[in-house]
Q: What sequence folds into this?
C-alpha cells in the first residue's frame, strides 16, 4: 500500500525550475526516497515530461552503479565513494540537447565530491536537481550551506496523524492510540503485527541511527550515547540541560561523563533529526532563555522503543505529537515563560514563572498553545488558562485537549479544540 505525502509533494512541485538544488532532509526512513522516486516521478510523468528526461539514480543501487561501471561490493570493501567522473560521463550520455532534464538523485552523499558535481549542474539551465541523502553530511542540518546559498531544503517528518489515518483501517480513536505507541515511520505503519513494529523500530536504531552517528562523529563510547537517548526518552517535555543530564548520569549510571560531552551528543542527535530542541522565551521580557530546554522526538515510536514501551505517559506523548505537527506545518515553536509576582498569605511577594507549552510563530502570525490531555474539572481548566491571563498582547490563545469537545471559545476568549480536530484539520487554529 502506498501512502500519499501530498503535503511534501506540493512543496517539490512548487519548487520546480527555481534554479536551486532541492534537498529533501529528514530522519532516515521517514519516506524521502519514496517521495522523490515514486510520488514526484509519477507526477512528472502525469504532467507530460518524457520518461527519458527524468534521470533517476540511486547511489546505493547495485543496478544503477553497474550502469556507470562501478561495483557496489568493491565500493564497500574498499570503503570508497562513487567516482564522480564515471557518474558525470553517464549523465552526458543521457542528457543530450537543450530540453529540460530532471535529475532525481538518491543517497547522493555516496558520490565523491557531490557538492562540486551538483554545483556544476546548477549552472546548466536545462537541468533541475532534486536530491535526497542520509548519513554523513546529509544527516546534518547545515547541508544547505554546501551549495553556496543555492540549496532549497524540504524538511520531511515521519507520517503526520492525518497521513497515518489514510493507511489505517480503524477509527481515529484507535488510530491515535496506535500512533502514540508506534509512531509514523512508514515501514512501521505498514507492518500489521505489533511485535514486528517494535522489532523494526529497534533494528532501525541498532543498524542505522546509532551506527550513522558513531561513524560520522567518530564517537568512542556508544554506551554513553545510548544511555543519553534512554534518559531523554524518559523525560520528553521536561526542562533539562547538559549539567542536569550529567548529574543524572552520575547518580543513575555512576558515570563521569562531562557536560561538554553531553552537549556534543545532544548536537549529534539533533543533527540526525532524531530530536528537536525547543528554547524558552520570556514573553514579557521578549528575550530567549537559552537553558534549560525541552527535547522532543521526531517520532514517538522511536522514543517508545528506547524505553521498551514503558512510561507511555499520554500527557507528554500528546505534547510531543502536537509539537511535531506544528513544526511540520511550518511554525517556529518555542516554550513560553510568563514571569508573575504574587503574594502569599503573609503578604510577602513571590516571583514565579508560569509556562505556556508552545509559542508558535509563522510570518506575522502567533499562537499561544497549551496541551492538556484531559480537563476533568474547573481547577484543571483554570490551571491551563492561567498563564494566558498574564499576557498583555492579543494573539490567539488555544487549549488542545484529548477530551471530546466541539471547538469553541470559552468565556475568557480561549479557543478550546480537541486533539483529533487539531491533527486532522490543518487550518483549524487559523480559521476558527
A:
Amino acid at each position: 500500500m502506498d501512502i500519499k505525502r501530498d503535503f511534501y509533494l506540493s512543496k517539490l512541485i512548487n519548487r520546480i525550475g527555481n534554479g536551486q538544488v532541492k534537498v529533501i532532509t529528514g530522519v532516515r526512513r521517514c519516506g524521502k526516497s519514496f517521495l522523490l522516486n515514486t510520488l514526484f516521478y509519477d507526477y512528472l510523468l502525469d504532467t507530460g515530461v518524457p520518461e527519458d528526461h527524468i534521470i533517476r539514480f540511486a547511489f546505493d543501487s547495485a543496478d544503477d552503479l553497474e550502469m556507470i561501471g562501478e561495483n557496489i561490493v568493491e565500493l564497500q570493501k574498499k570503503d570508497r565513494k562513487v567516482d564522480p567522473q564515471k557518474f558525470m560521463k553517464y549523465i552526458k550520455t543521457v542528457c543530450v540537447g537543450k530540453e529540460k532534464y530532471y535529475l532525481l538523485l538518491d543517497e547522493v552523499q555516496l558520490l565523491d565530491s557531490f557538492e562540486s558535481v551538483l554545483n556544476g549542474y546548477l549552472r546548466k539551465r536545462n537541468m533541475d536537481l532534486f536530491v535526497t541523502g542520509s548519513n554523513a553530511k546529509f544527516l546534518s542540518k547545515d547541508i544547505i550551506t554546501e551549495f553556496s546559498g543555492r540549496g532549497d531544503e524540504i524538511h520531511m517528518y515521519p507520517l503526520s496523524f492525518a497521513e497515518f489515518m489514510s493507511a489505517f483501517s480503524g477509527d481515529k480513536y484507535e488510530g491515535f492510540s496506535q500512533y502514540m505507541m508506534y509512531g509514523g515511520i512508514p515501514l512501521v505503519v505498514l507492518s500489521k503485527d505489533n511485535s514486528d513494529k517494535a522489532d523494526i523500530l529497534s533494528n532501525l536504531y541498532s543498524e542505522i541511527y546509532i551506527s550513522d552517528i558513531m561513524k560520522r562523529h567518530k564517537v568512542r563510547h556508544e554506551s554513553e550515547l545510548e544511555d543519553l537517548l534512554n534518559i531523554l526518552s524518559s523525560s520528553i517535555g521536561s526542562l533539562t540541560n547538559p549539567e542536569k543530564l550529567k548529574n543524572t548520569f552520575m547518580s543513575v549510571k555512576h558515570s563521569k561523563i562531562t557536560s561538554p560531552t553531553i552537549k556534543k551528543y545532544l548536537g549529534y542527535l539533533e543533527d540526525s533529526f532524531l530530536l528537536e530542541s525547543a528554547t524558552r522565551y520570556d514573553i514579557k521580557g521578549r528575550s530567549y532563555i537559552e537553558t534549560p530546554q525541552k527535547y522532543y522526538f521526531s517520532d514517538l515510536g522511536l522514543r517508545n522503543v528506547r524505553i521498551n514501551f514503558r512510561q507511555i505517559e499520554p500527557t507528554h506523548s500528546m505534547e510531543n505529537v502536537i509539537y511535531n505537527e506544528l513544526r511540520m506545518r511550518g511554525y517556529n515553536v518555542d516554550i513560553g515563560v510568563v514571569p508573575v509576582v504574587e503574594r502569599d498569605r503573609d503578604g510577602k511577594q513571590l516571583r514565579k514563572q508560569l509556562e505556556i507549552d508552545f509559542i508558535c510563530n509563522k510570518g506575522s502570525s502567533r499562537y499561544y498553545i497549551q496541551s492538556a490531555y484531559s480537563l476533568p474539572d474547573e481547577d484543571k481548566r483554570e490551571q491551563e488558562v492561567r498563564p494566558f491571563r498574564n499576557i498583555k498582547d492579543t494573539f490567539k490563545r488555544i487549549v488542545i485537549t484529548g477530551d471530546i469537545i466541539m471547538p469553541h471559545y470559552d468565556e475568557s476568549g480561549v479557543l478550546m479544540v480537541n486533539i483529533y480536530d487539531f491533527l486532522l484539520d490543518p487550518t483549524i487554529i487559523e480559521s476558527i
The mean pLDDT is 92. The chain is about 40% helix and 20% strand. The first helix runs from residue 6 to 14.
